[in-house]
From TrEMBL:
It comes from Adineta ricciae. This is Uncharacterized protein.
Amino acid sequence: MHADQPRRRMAQNYLLVWVDFNFDEKDKDCQNTLMHLRHVVNDINICTQPDACVEFLNSIGDEKAFVITSGSLGQHLVADIHDIPQANAIYIFCSNKSRHEAWTKKWSKIQGVHTNINEICEALTVDVKQYDQDSIPMSFVTVRGDTSNTNLDELEPSFMYTQLLKNVLIEIKHK
């Protein structure tokens, strides 16, 4: 397994696992693919064996992983990783899309079969943004009837609000 550390740091609580028997750091295509992926994710982990991928996913605690695998390797690997909670989404990267589309339909975490890295980066960008939005903790304050006993300064610490919202809520309280 190889962990790639990019120059640019992004705050995130997920990573990417690329599973490929034929990964070669010196290969220009692999370097180009990594360059494209770095525009979307911060941590890229390379596994050249399926067992290393399973072991890695089971070792990352609460982090979530997006997994890219080839079609032929994926046919066996997906069954091993689909139920691992850390595996958030799986992308199939292959040269023959029609060959792999049928078997991928039965796995809900598979986000598509892609024939080029640009397609994967586009799908990954959408899924990462959705994951980020889903991960934002939210709290709500409701105003019902008499709010004279409500102290807006005693909200739980995870509730984030702007000064403008606080002022609006205070005005509502005094009406």
